[in-house]
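Quick one, T. Sequence first:
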Amino acid sequence: MSIKENININKLPLHVAIIMDGNGRWAARHGSVRSIGHEHGIEAVRSSVEGASEIGIKYLTLFAFSTENWSRPRDEVNALMSLLVHAIDAETDNLMKNNVKVTVIGEISKLPENVRNRLLACVDRLHNNTGLTVVFALSYSSKWEITEAAKKLAADVQTGNVKLDDINNQLFEKYLSTFGIPDPELLIRTSGEYRISNFLLWQIAYSELYFTDVLWPDFRKEDLFRAILDFQDRERRFGLTSEQITS
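Structure tokens:
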């Protein structure tokens, strides 16, 4: 029986998020420059999207580029931006064919204009699709997101649109860039690193964390299925006891 056949489709996580890590180390192991690792990472994205679609995952968030990544060497950043444009052009037709919707979170105003325009055109073209929603986190960091949300909320308090006593978790979430997207139930990080790296800090409060030594360019849908099988073997208590859950 294959890994996929062992998955209980009645216990799927609604939303899976992935920190795609290890492109640089993959390139080093293969005697290549870092940009080659990023290029091979595209196949991992394609395979993960296909796998999530096949089994019925509703949301897949991919951490593609952080606000901190702007501090990387200029040649690497330029290569990443060029690769992003190429990937958008190459994959949009296939995403449309497979009924995949795409959305973006992050400070996309910082992206080069040609990248931003092609990205938004892709989002617009796929807007009415009803299958898997792929959320790309680009120029994103959780501290940036929370700070921006706090600013917007403070402005609404200042203008009287929100009363101080009305502020709670549910209200604050409306100011986050992920509003309308369910919180991830499963967070995967590749490459053997055990860090969250400033990713969805608010949203993963009760996510199950799964770490794998597989470098991102080598990650395939079977690795995603293994993570989901591991998720399905866990007991999610949300602060309750096991006895409370079973009763």
